[in-house]
Write a sequence for this structure.
DNA sequence: CTGAAAGCGCTTACAG
DNA sequence: CTGAAAGCGCTTACAG
């Protein structure tokens, strides 16, 4: 009548071994204070039977509080990192009954030093964090702190981009090179191979261009060269905070190059360029951009942007925190490299991605 | 030191109300045997404080076994419905400790009668299922059984497609009309507006074309008419089991219409047409298809198919079962209409969707 | 109608 | 090194 097969419990194992449940628990979690003989006997039984621990009961009984820290750039309202933070909070909510706390630390995404400060604060906080999630925007500073965490045996997860030399518990993010490559393919599906294309990027005072943007640009170029396209590429440099300067720069660029047919920008702020194209009615310019921000979606919907390429930032953060709970609470192995799908968004399917915030 | 705020437990409420935990439990779950006065007193306290029940402890203590039935078409290896079944099994695995069993019933997807038989079996099984997930391929038969389930107060979830007149706990699937519309857009991004296009569909002996396929076709046509395209459309009818006949049909079609430039097929078996195009080297024909099947992916990778449109079948089934656990175990409200994103797959991003099977 | 007790499957001091 | 007991936050008979 009952279709659930009888589950094996610690008590069953204890009886078989002629010991108490406490002792079985000790070998199960390898916390010592068991004689070699008893240990062998219990392990023999464990090998024979298929014991599946009930991690919910375990968490209920355990007094352990987990503190997971997250180190990400400051969140502007409506900006990319706000989506990431939402994922962190969703994971925290979901893990509430497991006594998990997520503490978020922010840094200035244009300042490697500010990243370092945040990491210092994390490593000095009490209680010591059980694990750390971080967006490793800058490789040298990242290496300093991954090393420290490895010394202290604090597992860490990368989101957004990754540093190959480090050894995180897991990584969740996009293959940036490939997303740049796909961006080129989509742009040239609307443009001719010989067209003039404008590529925009934000001026970077400290020469600290983040990994991801640089890789997307490489991917874009690799599409062009692999397919022997004879397009001409012109560059425009944007300012992060001076919108007037941006407008005059773009005015000049499009005046000097009236034959520009396509535009691409590899940061999440496509709306800066799209706003210009719309205002000055440059409808003949096809544009592609990155990331599912409200401000970008507006221009996708009115056809100023033809394609947006997205990377599920909320899901990256959510899965990053969940990786820690899988590791500590559910004792599961987590795959180390987890590329998110490179989602292609158009006017026709955007609606369903917007609904998807879970 | 401990950042977890003190949680309120049933015992705390019981003390405040001057009753026992059992009585609080009775009003919490509305299972009667409580005097109006006690009930009021407890509810007053409940309204004041923010009690968050620990559903894990609740499930642990409860003896209730949940049986969820799923009614889906037969799974061919490598076929669409196998992906759905994988999602069912993943959900069952994940809910193992909650004493959840998922029982899968299959039917012949070309036979409404066979669907009805499966539903009969489900409703007659012992124990009575706590909930039923189904793919409502055929509306009239579906209505018969959704009615019965509503009478017996058995919640049900639709996946794949939905019947608007019914009232499921939830629906997980694609907006088929829109996915057909997007298919047209992608095809015409590679073809000219005036090209000749071939549309293929499987011959349907019982005139029981499933909802979804018909809607995709409508969506496709609506793109054509909305954009005033002057393309010519020719039709090809395929057989589900006679591959030789299919080849001769397609030979004839392409011989008589050498100017066919594009091809579309709205079922999951794009590989039947793509295999023909590849074999007879019709490289000048651009093709779009549906669903992330291995056999389709092969032709996406070698460029016979330009775009595949996917709908996350594994996730539909997984979320469908999870909707039941949210409802029964975690007492959460489940959104009723859940459209899956319409994923656009290309050679460049397919790899990351393949890795995504969770 | 209500409460006390036992139990879900595990962990955690504590005593020896 | 080991076991008995208490407890995690709930639910479930059972007795009254």
């Amino acid at each position: 009548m009952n279709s659930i097969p009888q589950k094996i419990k610690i008590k069953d194992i204890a009886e078989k071994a002629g010991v108490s449940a406490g002792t079985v628990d000790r070998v199960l979690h390898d916390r010592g204070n068991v004689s070699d003989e008893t240990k062998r006997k219990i392990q023999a039984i464990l090998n024979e039977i298929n014991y599946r621990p009930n991690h919910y009961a375990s968490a209920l009984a355990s007094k352990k509080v987990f503190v997971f820290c997250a180190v990400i750039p400051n969140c502007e309202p409506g900006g990319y990192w706000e989506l990431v933070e939402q994922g962190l909070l969703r994971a925290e909510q979901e893990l509430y009954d497991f006594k998990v706390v997520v503490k978020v630390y922010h840094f200035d995404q244009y300042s490697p030093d500010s990243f370092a400060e945040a990491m210092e604060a994390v490593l000095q906080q009490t209680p010591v964090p059980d694990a750390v999630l971080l967006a490793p925007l800058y490789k040298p500073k990242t290496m300093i702190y991954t090393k420290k965490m490895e010394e202290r045996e604090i597992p860490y997860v990368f989101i957004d981009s990754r540093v190959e030399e480090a050894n995180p518990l897991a990584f969740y993010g996009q293959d940036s090179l490939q997303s740049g490559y796909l961006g080129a393919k989509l742009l040239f599906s609307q443009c001719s191979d010989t067209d003039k294309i404008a590529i925009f990027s934000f001026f970077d005072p400290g020469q600290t261009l983040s990994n991801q943007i640089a890789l997307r640009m490489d991917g874009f170029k690799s599409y062009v060269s692999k397919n022997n396209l004879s397009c001409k590429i012109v560059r425009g440099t944007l300012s992060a905070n001076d919108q007037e300067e941006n407008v005059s720069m773009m005015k000049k660029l499009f005046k000097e190059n009236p034959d520009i047919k396509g535009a691409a920008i590899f940061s999440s702020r496509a709306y800066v360029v799209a706003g210009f194209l719309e205002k000055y009615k440059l409808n003949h310019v096809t544009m592609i951009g990155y990331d599912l921000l409200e401000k970008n979606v507006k221009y996708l919907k009115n056809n100023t942007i033809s394609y947006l390429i997205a990377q599920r930032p909320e899901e990256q953060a959510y899965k990053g925190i969940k990786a820690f709970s899988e590791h500590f609470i559910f004792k599961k192995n987590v795959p180390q490299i987890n590329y998110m799908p490179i989602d292609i968004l158009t006017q026709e399917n955007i609606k369903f991605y917007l609904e998807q915030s879970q």
Chain B has three domains: 10-53, 61-174+313-341, 176-310. The two ends of chain B are 36 Å apart (CA to CA). Chain B has a mean pLDDT of 93.
